[in-house]
Amino acid sequence: MRRKLVYSLSAILLLAVSLMAITLGAGYHPALGLDLRGGISVTLRPVTGQAFDKSSLDLAVERIRERVDSFGVGEPEILRQDDAIVVNLPGVNDQQQAIDLVNVTGKVYLRPVIGCANPVTTTPVTSIVGTATTTAGTATTAVANTTVVNLPTATTGASATSGSTPTSGAPGPTRRVNSVPPTTDPASATPAALTATPPTGGTAPTDTASSDTVVATGETTTTVAGATTTTGLPFSDPAATQVLPTRDGGKCQVGPSGGTGEVFVRDSAAPRIIGGGWGVTVDLKTGGSGEGVWNALAKECFNGTATCPSKQLAIELDGQIQSAPTVNAENFTGSVQITGNFTKNEATKLAQVMNSGALPITLQAEAVQTVSATLGKDSLRAALIAGAIGVALVLAFMFAYYRRLAVVVLLGLCVSGTLVYSITSFISRFYNGVLSLAGVAGLIVSIGVTIDSYVVFFERLKDEMRAGRSLRNSAQRGFKAAFHTILVADSVSLIGAAVLWYLSVGAVRGFAFYLGLSTLIDVFVAYFFTRPAVLLLARSKFMSGKKIMGMEPSADANQALGATS
Amino acid sequence: MTEVLAPETEVSLHRTARARLYHGETRVDFMGRKWWGIGVSAALIIATIVSLFAQGLNLGLDFNGGVQWEVPSANITDAQARDVLNANGVTAAEAKIVTVSASGVERLRIQTSEQPADVRQKVSAALAKAAKVDIKDISSNSVTASWGKEITNKAVRALVVFIILVALFIAWRFEWAMALSAIAAMLHDVLISVGIYSILQLEVTPATVIAFLTILGFSLYDTIVVFDKVDENTVRFAGSRLPYDDVINVSMNQVVMRSLNTSLAAVLPVLSLLVVGAGLLGAISLREFALALFVGLVTGSYSSIFIAAPLLAWVKGQTPKYKAMRGPRAVGVDLERLVMGGSPAARREAQRLRSARAGDAAAVGGASVNAPEALLTHAPRPRKKKRR
User: For residues A108, A109, A110 and A112, what is the CA-based torsion angle, rounded to 10 degrees?
Assistant: First the structure.
């Protein structure tokens, strides 16, 4: 029994010390929230009445993160909370910049490629047709060398498949074409007609007057391919000719958008293994708004008209070209295949992009909050000082009331504090969480909860001693009963924290998280630290004094430490 | 508290009320005083309702929507700020401008209705210029009205879910009567806290809402400590046909120190946040939080003793089992016996002290029939271990 207690006690002390050592050694520290160090917080929500689903929001979060990262904002916090997205940008203090940063439309544009500057390989060439067997390109080739394809339904054979060898020395592209679209009349669709169909209907990203609605703000219209390197991702302007980056660091000059992702059937895009490599298949909506728009574009690119000399069709999402496959057919019915040197992840990602493009969401900034850096610092300092004084007061009270037994409280608080600090640091480091003012307040409040557990235990212990039991015996019985109470009471706190965390947004969430965390730690520490510590103390000479914890052991106590009157 | 705990008979283990409290030897007839508690609560609740109807709550920006700036006000006056607003197309007349003090720095807090982003940005820049500070030193906060509504709805939804879950939990862990009383006490706390915010017209912010939700947790923690003891005593006195009022009284006396200490331990850090953090160091955001917590903690500890327990006694008293056991409450020495009773050592000790002090053992005559030991002719068989 004694040995077990010693083990438990040393184990938790070792845990606390080593966690602290790792944390300090690795230089982890809790990332401070916006309200503690200044910055801007933007809360976005889909415009009311819009149909959307959670996955498109998740994708939007990812897009925002990429965009924010590309601008080099330090320690941003981007979270989806239910149907809202909260973006915290510490250190940013220009509201317009912040709103531009989170400017994610979720709209996928289909834009003819004029030319590409590619860091790895030469620009993809105009060859249209390839054989199915070619697996040319290196894995590192740029987006531009993916290749579109065609109808899965048709049979192999016709004109396109005439099976020429990989042509014109283009190193990259993998091409395969199995079939030919049934009927085509190349002449019918003129490029002009195509470009006249900008992103369909009402959802077109108009320049908004109140820029609260986060839509494209058509800023960057760089002209020369590959020339400019702007900081961060440029903003998409579907109506202009732009140079946009590709996913792998290349750049392509693309023409005005000829259609949006809305030509695709929602949720139809899926990664598939096509001819030995990963690719994506996607269904087209029937009718003018789907196949009509797509085929017009395809025809343009297939024929390499002036608007689409490269024969590539770029799939662009929020200012970044996701893929720019070469069009290998002129007319598509039903579905489209995109193949290339995709990895499974890339294919999955592309499919995701196309799916979300089929039902884009427009986000609106519901709340924008700027916290000045000085105000934040002051709050943090005040919270820390107040916290320290609070802890000191509580400890003083504990020592006055429980005398020597309060040593356990002191050590216990150290252990809990270490655990909370380390866990918070780990979370900051690995899960992009931050400690906000509400979180700090939650932690300070939890000091009260932690102390509660000690009080419950010690009062119980006193009850037992009063009933005439020895200290050693009382400690054991007392803990058993007290732990029962602590468990029940902490469960309620935990339920509260969980409900708050699950159902609320923003600051409340941070608070709930830290309340929940410290409640869990409280139970943990009570069982693995407080119990062995008190039980061992109860056996030691340290507690055998006459007036331990301010009360005399009863005359009937086994040890007969001396009757009092 | 000292008044309540004053000695009621000449017999006592420790002389002063403080010492008896410390040693768990109180014998306060809480149930006999329940009308005091209920009366105070009723008065507060009526005041709350009247105030809510008369002036409502002072809801902050986050609930109503709008824009707020905070500017260090060393170089800018109220009128200048209004000029800035007017110059940027914001109707200054409807703007609310107050001076707040944070960290020894006076700040102007300017609140207006919703404004588009470009206007906000322009106003921020213009304010920075007028106040001769860097734009970094200006805090602004803008919330659309629909978002404010959403936040409110979420908070209400969280509250409802929380109450249901907690009620289920307590009912499962203890019993329905306790769940009912605990929830009622909790609602009582929220109502009174809201009332204090309404009466004093303090601004309700998201921080306040967080604090209110925390209060629920604290209030329940206290109540559960009391109920846990009641639960234990119900089992202990199960064979002695003791009226439920007595069981509650005994439990309350046994946990009163625990309740006081836990409340004190919880209040101290909050008080420090309020006085040191918000008061001396002037962190406004801390004040919003700490104030609500403080109010809630105090009402929470109060309600666990004066609302939850009497309510539980009343609900349980209605059940057929306890209806049959109704009788006069044990008070004074009888109550003390019940509180201290159970362990032979304690009884012997008490007896010895009493006779030593009073000189005659007869003073204790006429023991209550309700005392469990009176019913037993031999030491009780150790209770079987059961799942509790």
Answer: -140
pLDDT grade, residue B46 (50/70/90)?
very high
Contact A511, B210 (CB under 8 A): yes
User: Does residue B66 fall inside a structural domain?
Assistant: no
What confidence tens digit (pLDDT) does each residue in A101-120 have?
A: 776 666 778 888 887 776 54
Q: Does B358 touch chain A (CB under 8 A)?
A: no
Report the percentage of chain B scoring pLDDT > 90.
Answer: 2
Provide the CA A362 distance to its chain's centre, in angstroms. 19
The answer to whether B371 and B240 are in contact (CB under 8 A) is yes
Residue B365 lies in a domain: no
Residue ending a domain, among B263, B291, B323, is: B323
pLDDT at residue A214, rounded to an integer: 36
Confidence of residue B50 (pLDDT cuts 50, 70, 90): very high
Q: Output the CA torsion B290→B294→B295→B296 (10° steps).
A: 100
Same domain, B269 and B236: yes
The CATH T-level fold of domain A2-34+371-550 is Multidrug efflux transporter AcrB transmembrane fold (1.20.1640)
Name the residue type at position A452.
D
Q: Where are the domains of chain A?
A: 2-34+371-550, 39-100, 105-201+215-361
**According to the model, what pLDDT value does residue A194 have?**
28
All residues at 6 or more sequence positions from B318 whose CB lies less than 8 Å from its CB, including other chains = none
**B339 — pLDDT class (breaks 50, 70, 90):** low
A120 vs A332, residue with greater confidence: A332
CA distance B217 to A422: 25
The count of C-alpha atoms lying within 13 angstroms of the C-alpha of A344, restricted to the half-sphere facing its C-beta, is: 1
CATH class of A39-100: alpha beta
Q: Which residue matches tokens 């369909």?
A: A200
DSSP A246: B
* B100 contacts on A by Cβ (under 8 Å): none
Among chain A residues, the shortest Cα distance to B24 is held by: A463
pLDDT score of B231:
85
End-to-end CA, chain A:
35
Facing residue for B157 by CB, picked from A481, A492, A503:
A503
B22 with B39, same domain: the answer is yes
Contact B210, B63 (CB under 8 A): no
The mean predicted confidence, pLDDT, of chain A is 69
B268 in contact with chain A, both atoms CB, cutoff 8 A: yes
Domain C-terminal end among B323, B338, B362 = B323
Give ipTM to 2 decimals: 0.71
**Tens digit of each residue's pLDDT (9 = 90 or more) over B208-241:** 777 777 777 777 878 888 888 888 888 877 766 6
User: Which tokens hold the place of A173?
Assistant: 């592209």
Whether residues B230 and B261 share a domain: the answer is: yes
Q: Do A375 and B216 touch (CB under 8 A)?
A: no
Q: Is residue B341 part of a domain?
A: no
Chain A residues whose CB is inside 8 A of the B254 CB are: 463
Q: Which of B147, B258, B276 lies nearest to residue A456, judging by beta carbons?
A: B258
What DSSP character marks residue B29?
-
